[in-house]
Amino acid sequence: MEISQSLQTAKQLLGKEVEVTMDRPLGSKHPKHDFVYEANYGFIEGIKAPDGEDLDSYFFHNQRITKVCITYTYIVTI
C-alpha cells in the first residue's frame, strides 16, 4: 500500500507539539459546500501539504474548539 505524501508529512510530527488553528469548529457549516463539520477542523500553519496549503488537522472532541490550541498529533487510520 502506498502512503500518501500528506500522511508522510504528518508522520514526521508524531510525538511533537504543534500549534493547530481550528478555523472550522465542530458543527460549523462549510463556507462553499452544503455540509456540516462533524469534527473540529483546522490546519497546522507553516507545514505544507502536497496541495500547497497548510496541512489539515482534525481534533476529535465532543465540544466545539474555537481557539488556537496546542496538542500532540496522532495519526488515526481506518
Automatic annotation (TrEMBL):
The cross-references to InterPro entries, in alphabetical order and at most eight, read: Pyrophosphatase_sf
Q: What is this protein called?
A: Inorganic pyrophosphatase
Please give the superkingdom of this protein's source. Answer: Bacteria
Q: Name one GO molecular function term.
A: inorganic diphosphate phosphatase activity
Instruction: Give a GO cellular-component term.
Output: cytoplasm
Q: Which organism is it from?
A: Candidatus Zambryskibacteria bacterium CG10_big_fil_rev_8_21_14_0_10_34_34
GO-annotated biological processes: phosphate-containing compound metabolic process
